[in-house]
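Appendix B, record 7
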Amino acid sequence: MLRCTLPQPRGALDMRPTLTRALRKTSLRLGFERDWYLYLVAAAIGLVMAVVATAFLAPLRAVEGWGEHMKGHPLLPWLVLLCPAIGGLVVGILRWMIRARDVGPGVTTLMYAVLRQRSRIQGRVGLQKWLCSTATIASGGSAGAEGPIVNIGGVIGSNIARLLGTRTQNTATLLGCGSAAGIAAVFNAPIAGIFFVMEILLRDFSLKTFTPIVIAAVVASATTRGVLHDSAIFDVGAGFIGSDESFGIGQIPIYLVLGLLSAVIAVTFIRSLRFASERFGRLAIPEMLKPAVGGLLLGLMGLISIMMTGLADVPSFYGNGYPVITNLLDPATYLPDEPDGTLGALALLVGLLLLLKILGTSLTIGSGGAGGMFAPSLVIGAALGGLLGMLLESVGWLPSGSPAHLALVGMAAVLAGTTHAPLTAILIVYELTQSYQVILPLMFAAVISTVVARAMNRNSIYTSRLRDMGIRVGVMSDLTILRRLTVSDVSLREPVVVAEDDSAQILLDLSEKHSTSDIIVVDQHGNYAGMVTSDDLKSALIHREAIPLLQVHELERSNLPTITSDDTLDLVIEKFSHNDVESLPVFDARDVDHPIGVITRNRLMQAYQAELDRE
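Structure tokens (predicted):
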């Protein structure tokens, strides 16, 4: 019995709205590429994300300004103690009310969607991240704004793609457009937003993906600057690097040490966050209360720091830490108040900031709080660089420049070590400060930190959770092609079908007739039951005289994985690698009982090679 099923045609074009189809037909007549509409959609996403980012940042900036006015207020210690716990409780309630699948921080959730959900993500995920991250950061939780806005932008891009009925490849592109536009709008750093998405999220540097993402990021950044009138977040000023200061071979050992230390601190940060997540995961209390417990522990740390330092101010490790970074990047911060003064007290404060920021972020995120890891990594890096600069200056090994220069480079180095994305780290620190003079030490320290951090800890701060779920995130660009292609892009072999209760002799007859040894087995109702592979037939041929006495169900394998026509090819290869077979059955996503074809390793590789030739 032979079932002949032709490869299924793509129906995405027919599902698009009438207006979209009409525009596409017109564009083809005019000679445009068939995916030209992505450029218009990308620009629209950039405009939307500029508005969304402005709305997202508004309450955070208002709370930050309110905190400045609370300096020295008698209620400040109580607010420092209780606000993070109250914010954590709000987060727990919001998560209970807005139930959404959450596999980790915002960037990790998007990576999971790209790798396993064909870049489709529910709108409620973005809503939950928005509200929960606002509650976390506004109440003093140690987290950044970039992770949530990346998530929100990705959700918006993914859902716009769903409404337009785009293909899987274009869905991932529009998801990346939203994420890149989010970073560009929040940080006013369009280049960094572009490379963040392409280096960390999509891992795809093809021109088809690059062009729409550039458009979205540039439009979002330009619009945000027009609305908020912001430039760089941390303006180091024109005199940050003197005209007689340059990066020479004599400074290489300094930045080598900074890169090595940054790698160690980055790995410590990753493991601390993982440890806190595991501990809170085992805590025998309702999930709703865990963020509040983490917030209370953070509040106790804040209260103790006020008592120890005597500073009647919001602790420096609270919130996103941008004001702290601004101070660490100011060369005047490292000048002693008195002519014969030393930097000992300041070094102690910066060292405490380094330690408490790691602990505070681990408690905030590990307990279930929402927020990004970019800002904490930047604070930790600035503190490490500033501390190293002060130590070198105290022993006379910092002949020129200021510890502020090392603080700037430390930001990129630690960020590169935590994300394993040196290009993104270099560009985002450069764009945040707009200081081109330090680009060489930025590149050197960031690359050293990345190499050492990856040797010490295989997973980045974003991929650790994915690794726990059994998802391997490759680093080779080839994987982006496999993730871009689906089974529907492969020419399937028509299935050869046999019934379970048939004689095994039929298997030999069908094998000779159709030149295949991989045969689909169905039950008495015609539903898929298993598969007889070439290895099964070879084993049976050892005792050929017994074959007429056997039935098909005695040879079939019912434990083989099944594949749908929407699965991406990287997932198919993973299934092939776990099962030593040459073919696997393919089903329509809406009918998992009747196979529509068989995919073979050979045809999969042919489709992959053909796509490589088109790139």
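Remarks on this record: Residues 485-614 form a domain with the CBS-domain fold (CATH 3.10.580.10). The first helix runs from residue 12 to 15.
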